[in-house]
């Protein structure tokens, strides 16, 4: 038995935690080496007097509860050392019983967790600061989304040109905006811009471009001519002056009297022109020009094309967020998926955007997407 006791004493003296054995009267029966170094030998002394300098047991003493019911306890408390230092310690206490199961005392193991708790406090503060920053960013993005929506035009419900649109910003807000307006009594301008990147910077650049188009404030530019508009935009908004952001654009002008649409695209997905009331006469033509994106290289010439609008037709101008949709199986729906859906489901004599959006939300199983979902529908009478 002496050998066993000596063995356990050696083991307990090698650990860095403070270990105390207390009897039912709160007297110290054993303390390990680390406590001897801090307090000197306190064996035979009351624990509350030896380590706390008190004349009676500590208030809310959990060792007392351990001695009563034999259930282990764990708690964190502060302790002041003889040298005046105050530490936070984690205390674990368990009952000691004899061969008959009678509680004869308790063992108490204390560990210094001061630095750990300081680190946890710093981490918690960091997390709180981060959450506050994320909350602020969320508010700022909400403000940006609201700002973008203020520049979007109202749908046109009557007249020779009728418009509708869907704009579902991504959680991080992409750089999509669009617009349309009558340049004069015979010419109707249609345009959609997609700025690279996400967030405030992309949104502000996109809105700036739209405001320039809407106010027709590009110098030496005939806004009836899409190639001139793209040339001027490319020079007016170099990426190097706009946080290295570039943008793509589709710009078209519909001449009501001649029923012709002149258009140009700069690195943008092709617009889709739906014509022909019923199959096999129904067509879905792609309207694009081989031009580069905006803001990369100055003084690049841009091409325009002309498309005849024969009878009733619907034009769809959109960003790549409309078809870069991740499906349930993680595959991308893609441009071919959009074309196939348009061929099968679009009708010239009715609006089609609600059906398109329902389909995309169904294949993605979500109501918003990783990128802005932006599409404009223009119906020509």
Description:
It is a single chain. By secondary structure, this protein is an alpha+beta fold. The protein folds into three domains: 111 residues, 2-Layer Sandwich (Beta-Lactamase); 38 residues; 229 residues, PPM-type phosphatase domain (Phosphatase 2c, domain 1), CATH 3.60.40. It is 32% helix and 29% strand. It is built from nine helices and 15 strands. The strands form three sheets. Strands 2-1-5-4-3 form a five-stranded antiparallel beta sheet. A five-stranded antiparallel beta sheet has the order 6-15-14-11-12, with helices on one face. A hairpin with a 4-residue loop joins strand 9 and strand 10. Helix 5 packs parallel to helix 6. The protein is elongated and about 110 Å long. The model has no long low-confidence stretch (mean pLDDT 87).
């Amino acid at each position: 038995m002496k050998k066993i006791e000596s063995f356990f004493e050696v083991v307990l003296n090698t650990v860095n935690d403070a270990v105390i054995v207390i009897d039912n009267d709160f007297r110290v029966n054993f303390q390990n080496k680390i406590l001897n170094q801090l307090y000197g030998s306190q064996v035979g002394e009351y624990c509350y007097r030896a380590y706390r300098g008190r004349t009676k047991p500590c208030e809310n003493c959990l060792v007392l509860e351990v001695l009563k019911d034999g259930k282990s306890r764990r708690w964190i408390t502060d302790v002041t050392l003889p040298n005046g230092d105050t530490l936070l310690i984690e205390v674990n206490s368990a009952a000691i019983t004899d061969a008959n199961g009678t509680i004869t005392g308790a063992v108490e193991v204390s560990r210094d967790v001061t630095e750990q708790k300081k680190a946890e406090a710093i981490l918690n503060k960091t997390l709180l600061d981060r959450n506050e920053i994320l909350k602020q960013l969320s508010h700022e993005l909400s403000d940006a989304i609201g700002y973008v929506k203020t520049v979007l035009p109202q749908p046109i419900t009557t007249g020779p040109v009728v418009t509708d649109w869907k704009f579902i910003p991504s959680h991080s807000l992409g750089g999509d905006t669009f617009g349309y307006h009558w340049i004069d009594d015979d010419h109707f301008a249609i345009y959609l811009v997609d700025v690279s990147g996400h967030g405030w910077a992309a949104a502000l650049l996109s809105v700036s471009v739209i405001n320039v188009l809407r106010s027709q404030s590009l110098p030496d530019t005939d806004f009836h001519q899409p190639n001139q508009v793209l040339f001027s935009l490319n020079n007016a908004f170099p990426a190097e002056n706009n946080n290295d952001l570039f943008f793509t654009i589709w710009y078209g002008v519909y001449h009501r009297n001649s029923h012709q649409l002149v258009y140009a695209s700069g690195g943008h997905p092709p617009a889709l022109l739906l014509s022909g009331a019923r199959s096999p006469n129904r067509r879905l033509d792609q309207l694009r020009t081989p031009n580069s994106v905006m803001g990369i290289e100055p003084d690049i010439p841009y091409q325009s094309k002309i498309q005849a609008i024969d009878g009733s037709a619907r034009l769809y101008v959109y960003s790549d967020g409309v078809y870069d949709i991740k499906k349930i199986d993680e595959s991308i729906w893609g441009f071919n998926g959009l074309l196939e859906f348009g061929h099968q489901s679009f009708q010239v004599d009715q609006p089609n955007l609600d059906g398109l959006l329902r389909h995309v939300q169904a294949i993605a199983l979500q109501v918003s997407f990783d990128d802005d979902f932006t599409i404009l529908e223009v119906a020509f009478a």
